[in-house]
Specification:
Order of helices and strands: EEEHHEH
Helix content: 25-40%
Structural class: alpha+beta
Bound molecules: zinc ion
Strand content: 15-25%
Radius of gyration: 20 Å
């Protein structure tokens, strides 16, 4: 096993050191409601537009996954405020 670096601070993590994996999944969700404000909306036309896009671009709009390695200090910092909210508005 070789050394690796913390994705946040770049500290070297040696074999046997404590480290954490941070897995972030961002995916589209649907509440069952479709809001169509444009009365000229043509669903067939919209599907054709989507079909013309590259598959990986469409997939990225629906699902994106990130995997990071964190040292213990960066794990604490991340877990204290994972959405990087301004501290005045954060609820801990
Ligand atoms: Zn770190």
């Amino acid at each position: 096993m070789s050394s690796q670096r913390c994705s946040r601070c770049q500290k070297i993590i040696h074999p046997g050191d404590l480290f954490y994996r941070l897995l972030i999944k961002v995916f589209a969700d649907f509440d069952g409601v479709i809001n169509i404000r444009n009365t000229n909306f043509d669903i067939k036309k919209e599907f054709k537009k989507v079909e013309a896009l590259p598959e990986d671009l469409i997939e990225e709009e629906v699902f994106k996954e990130f995997i990071f390695v964190l040292c213990p200090r960066c794990k604490e910092i991340y877990c204290a405020n994972p959405l990087f909210l301004p501290l005045d508005d954060a609820y801990f």
